[in-house]
Design a protein that fits this description.
The complex is a heterodimer.
Chain A lengths: L9 H14 L4 H14 L6 H9 L7
Helix pairs in contact in A: 1-2
Chain B lengths: L1 H24 L11 E2 L20 E6 L4 H9 L4 H9 L1 E5 L7 H10 L3 H4 L5 E4 L4 E4 L2 E4 L4 E4 L2 E4 L4 E4 L6 H7 L4 E6 L10 E5 L13 E5 L12 E5 L2 E2 L2 E10 L5 E2 L1 H8 L8 E2 L2 E11 L4 E6 L2 E6 L2 E2 L3 E8 L3 E7 L1 E5 L5 E4 L3 E2 L9 E2 L3 H9 L11 H6 L4 H23 L6 E6 L1 H13 L15 H19 L5 E5 L5 E7 L1 H7 L27 E4 L3 E4 L14 H16 L10 E5 L1 H4 L11 E5 L2 E4 L13 E3 L6 E2 L9 E5 L2 E2 L6 H11 L14 E2 L3
Parallel strand pairs in B: 1-9, 2-28, 2-29, 10-11, 10-28, 12-13, 30-35
Antiparallel strand pairs in B: 3-38, 4-5, 6-9, 7-8, 11-27, 12-25, 14-15, 15-18, 16-17, 18-19, 19-20, 21-24, 22-23, 23-26, 24-25, 29-38, 30-36, 30-37, 31-32, 32-34, 33-34, 39-40
Classes of the chains: A mainly alpha, B alpha+beta.
């Protein structure tokens, strides 16, 4: 509740408020949290070796 | 001959119309820098000129992956295969000796080149880079583009990347092309990117999906916790149902035009460490929204400007998906099918692997390049990746057995439509059409028909699944026989047969027990993948891939410990003896019945580039699920309870393929390499030097 605060301009905040209600989020915070998590995911790619193994696993012959 | 010219012109006209349509629909995209360019084999002229008597000869080959001669004969005897029975009566039928190992990439490579693995260089689905000690797909490799120019978070390669086919050797249809003959090759395995030859070809097994994998499905659920963190061959994504709406994203390949600092670099920066920043490419994404109608047990799915309505348990048609690498400039085209498995109490949505879109392929899947577009304009979109039947989703429990059957039928129907389309036009000189349904069905449905199987499941419908698949291929054979003239040579063949997969062998665990492998920390035997816990300085040999066993050679492996020459030979001798003496203490069976040494037993320049030993498992046995990628489960021998219950990666003598023809087969034990030579001989072409097969197809007396 008393975590770090982020400044948003008023117009954006109003938009967030409107769309969070439309999308069924319980609060603006939940919506912002979800949106930012989604963005951060693209920073968190797998390492290339793991990716190679994962790609081979589509074969069916291995677990 | 005049027919041939007319057909060819018609084909070009269709291709032209299709291409114009595609151009009209295409976004303004800048593709040259993005597209991977195929390195195509150089065509060199060999052999002798075509005798005039062979002119006009037409040959049709129906390739049925995994069709087994004993099962086929039993279904024929039961009266279920009238067209196969008629071909046996009118022509001939023999088991067809497969390769060692009897894996599809190996066997199909031998069929198409007439060479053993020493010649074509494919020893397994999985090869090992001994310098990096990393596994890789044996069939094709992706190569990075030129050094990029970076502008902020944007990155522009100075030249395009590429994909390279790793199979060596010249295909028989290239040899036919050298003699002015045109071939149509539909979904031949190990032909991605397709080699250049007169005629047309579409790549098959070995073709990646859009993210470069062998097939990675996606599964969206609001009960993510019900599933393991990672599953093989797929990814599970958590979604939330809010006000009857679900937001999801398709995850495409990395955007090579964008770069962000890696997580590790950011962590070090946060700690105030001065580091040189490493960058990763973020994945391309495409948003979709599902609007749930709980009362109707249906949902509307919106992706881009496309909307579709699906009922629960319903499959969508192909949906076009686009990934924007650079907004409004570079777009990568793909296609997916959705399956709305469940709306409530759990939301569950399956999405096929992202396909290379045949209408707008980002990688070279056909030759000429516009043939996939032509097929698409005639048949609609279709599966283009590796093996369409999604056995991994069934293995993971994402698709039930019945749902897997339905998905397999979608792929089968696409292939059937393609066969009808190809047969609707006169064969130019040579036609090959591939079906993979029997292979994947035999892998996944064996435990429904075999009461001896450890994973036997009683199911009144699916116990008849494999026979049904054979019946379906019988109807396809009937269609082919109707369409071709009596003067056309017809060959029906498979790359290997099938056997039950009752028992798993953890070969690396066995090597550990036998003292060939040492671990850094024996207390952590079961943790880590790809030999991460192996003490290479005390390791003589390791197993990788489905049948391969490698000596840890100095000068080849990253940390080799065995000196090439007499010392290495002694290790191989010791391994061969030990493998053939292996006993399963649970039933006193011998799990290994054959050891092949490529250096000794194969011919050709590639024979020393694969494993040092190929392990031939006895009927009922196969390497375990974990061993091919270097894991060490506790027990050496384990019962196989996976739905993947039939297999063929064993002693090749246990799993021959089939050979049927409307001619006579002169040798009672024909081989795949014989078939290559026999096809050339149909046109009077003397096989080039290095092909060891003999002609086995003779006119009927």
């Amino acid at each position: 509740m008393f975590g770090p605060k982020v400044k948003l301009d008023k117009a954006l905040y109003e938009k967030l408020k409107m769309y969070s209600t439309i999308a069924g989020y319980s609060s603006v915070e939940e919506f912002v949290h979800h949106a930012l998590e989604k963005e951060i995911k693209q920073f968190e790619g797998a390492t290339s070796e793991e990716e190679i193994r994962q790609k081979l696993k589509g074969l069916g012959y291995i677990s | 001959m005049s027919n041939r010219v007319k057909v060819s012109r018609a084909g070009h006209a269709r291709a032209g119309n299709s291409a114009r349509r595609c151009q009209a629909n295409a976004r303004q995209v800048w593709k040259p820098a993005l597209r991977w360019v195929a390195l195509l084999c150089t065509v060199c002229l060999v052999g002798t000129a075509t005798p005039l008597s062979a002119a006009g000869r037409k040959v049709v080959v129906l390739g049925i992956d995994g069709m087994d001669p004993k099962l086929l004969q039993s279904f024929v005897d039961q009266g279920r295969m009238p067209n196969f029975k008629a071909l046996m009566k009118d022509g001939d039928f023999r088991p067809l000796q497969t390769t060692m190992p009897p894996q599809s990439p190996v066997a199909w490579s031998t069929f198409m080149t007439g060479l053993d693995p020493g010649g074509h260089g494919i020893f397994d689905f999985i090869h090992v880079d001994p310098v990096k000690m990393a596994p890789y797909n044996s069939m094709a490799v992706a190569e990075a583009g030129g050094r990029p120019v970076n502008v902020g978070s944007w990155s522009f390669p100075t030249s395009g990347g590429g994909v390279r086919l790793l199979r060596k050797g010249k295909t028989f249809w290239q040899m036919l092309g050298d003699h002015g003959l045109r071939s149509t090759i539909f979904r031949m395995p190990v032909n991605f990117p397709p080699v250049k030859a007169p005629g047309r070809s579409l790549s098959g097994m070995g073709t990646p999906d859009l993210i470069g994998s062998q097939g990675t499905f996606s599964f969206y659920t609001d009960h993510r916790k019900d599933w393991p963190a990672q599953i093989s061959g797929g990814e599970i994504f958590e979604v939330t149902v809010r006000s009857n709406r679900v937001d999801g994203q398709l995850y495409g390949p990395p955007n090579t035009f964008r770069r962000f600092p890696t997580k590790e670099s950011l962590e070090l920066l946060e700690k105030g460490r001065a580091v040189s920043i490493n960058y990763d490419n973020p994945k391309l994404t495409q948003d979709f929204v599902v609007y749930v109608d709980p009362k109707a047990r249906a949902a509307k799915l919106v992706l881009g400007d496309q909307e579709l309505v699906l009922k629960e348990k319903e499959w969508s048609n192909w949906v076009h998906a686009e990934f924007e690498a650079i907004p409004h400039v570079i777009t990568i085209s793909s296609a997916v099918r959705f399956y709305l498995k469940q709306l409530s109490p759990k939301f569950e949505l399956y999405v096929t692997p992202l396909q290379i879109d045949p209408e707008d392929p980002v990688m070279p899947i056909s030759q000429p390049a516009n043939w996939s577009k032509e097929l698409c304009s005639q048949l609609g979109r279709f599966y283009t990746h590796n093996i369409p039947e999604d056995a991994q989703a069934f293995k993971a429990g994402v698709l039930s057995a019945g749902e897997f059957w339905d998905q397999m039928m979608l792929a089968y129907e696409e292939r059937s439509r393609a066969l009808d389309y190809l047969l609707a036009h006169p064969v130019e000189d040579f036609l090959f059409v591939y079906f993979g349904t029997v292979d994947q069905g035999s892998h996944m449905l064996w435990h429904f028909m075999d009461r001896e199987h450890p994973g036997y499941v009683q199911d009144d419908l699916l116990k008849d699944g494999i026979p049904k698949l054979y019946e379906m291929l019988d109807s396809r054979l009937g269609r082919v026989r109707e369409a071709i003239g009596k003067e056309t040579t017809l060959v029906v063949m498979s790359d290997h047969g099938f056997a039950p997969f009752y028992w798993e062998v953890n070969l690396n665990t066995w090597l550990l027990e036998q003292g060939f492998i040492a671990l850094k920390d024996p207390s952590k035997q079961e943790s880590g993948e790809f030999f991460s816990n192996v003490d290479w300085s005390r390791t003589q040999a390791y197993a990788a891939g489905l049948n391969g066993l490698y000596v840890n050679l100095k000068g080849r492996e990253k940390a080799g410990s065995v000196t090439p020459g007499p010392e290495a030979d002694a290790v191989v001798d010791k391994l061969e003896k030990a493998l053939l003496s292996m006993k399963d203490p649970r039933n006193n069976r011998s799990p290994v019945s054959l050891v092949v040494r490529p250096h000794r037993d194969f011919k050709g320049p590639e024979k020393d580039k694969g494993p040092d030993i190929l392990v031939g498992y006895s009927r009922g046995y196969r390497c375990s699920w974990e061993s091919p990628l270097g894991e060490f489960p506790k027990a050496v021998f384990v019962n196989n309870h996976s739905p993947w219950s039939g297999d063929h990666c064993m002693d090749y003598r246990e799993v021959p393929g089939i050979l049927l023809t409307n001619l006579r087969i002169s040798n009672p034990t024909p081989t795949l390499a014989d078939l290559t030579v026999s096809l050339l001989q149909q046109y009077g072409i003397t096989p080039p030097e290095g092909l060891t097969g003999k002609n086995v197809l003779e006119p009927k007396k």
